[in-house]
Prior knowledge:
Helices cover about 45% and strands about 25% of the residues. It is α+β, with helices and mostly antiparallel strands.
Amino acid sequence: MVRKVGLTDSVGFACLEDLQLSNSYMWGTAISLDYCGREDCIKGWKFGPYVRESYVIHMVKKGKGTFTIAGKTYELGPGQAFIIRPGEETTYRADDDDPWSYMWVGFHGYRAEDFIEAMGYVKGSPIIKIEQMDTCAECINKMLEYSQITRINEVKRMSALMLLFATIMEDNASDAQESDNIEYPSKIYVKAAVDFITEKYMNKIKIDDIADFIGISRSHLTGSFKKEMGVSPQEYLINFRLEKAASLLRSSKEQINIIAYQCGYEDSLSFSKAFKQKFGMSPKSFRNLEVELETNDAKFGHEASKL
């Protein structure tokens, strides 16, 4: 089985996507790059309504457009950026007279909300400013440049992503400073739980074990997790184990039942069922999956090839 990581590079449009198929170092980590790109939009170009599975930040270099979320429409221009969170239905549209040129980056990870908060975003206010737009553009261009499916390029892309995040944080430091100086108990509990899972995921642990280790009730832990992560601790534990399993399937030649055991599954059938539910294929098919870079010279070329 072959899956394509798509690189489209044409006049006015460039996009590197489906990187989650090739990431080897980033499974189960704090942040992972899914896709990125840039576009000089045509007049009136509209995208949506659409619901994303990743977090996505769009940065407007020049021109104007509108962004609609939760029934509210925002007008944006150069030096502004809007955030889309997973599960949010959004629509955005280029201006009829002065269409925008923008860049975007899509990502996921258990620390995604922490990064977003540090950039100055707050829920209910999806717009922030960006003063160092040229630096942000360099970061996006570097990610596009490091398109080959190698571990070195994977790390280079992540380096460019971290520099992008740091640049946006720096531009909005005064906006985020107050929240940076406040410690929320729920965050402390969640961090302790994540550290526990990271160290003990291969063992037969239960959510009660994690709560007991931290010293809070299971219901308190669940509430803290849902507040900070958007998922329950049980969902996080399952997802973490499966992503670790995916990484081992790619990087080792161990038998699948051994990998299942190493990731906390004593029953290989239960493991296979859970793995297929998450990744859409069996562990065996995932191990045999070949990821190739497909280069296109037209917008939507990669998407059309998947149909």
